[in-house]
Amino acid sequence: MTVTATSVWKNCLAFIQDNIQPQAFKTWFEPIKPVRLDNNALTIQVPNKFFYEWLEEHYVNLLKTTIRRELGDRGRLEYQILMSQNN
Prior knowledge:
87 residues; alpha+beta; 3-stranded mixed beta sheet; 48% helix; globular
């Protein structure tokens, strides 16, 4: 099976879902879309800057742990912020 951004993020979500409350998962993780996987970096798209800041403030350790579980010690997470809702 080929490892893709989608497959990595799907595995990350399964781990995250087991470690936070269902409502928090629905609010903060379901809207995220995997964009690309390149050189041990998973890029995810978040709806706006506030969303990004909230994740970084409240879930940074969980995200780091999850990415390292999936991509190894050199794994990292990058963000792409969606600038408009006109898509």
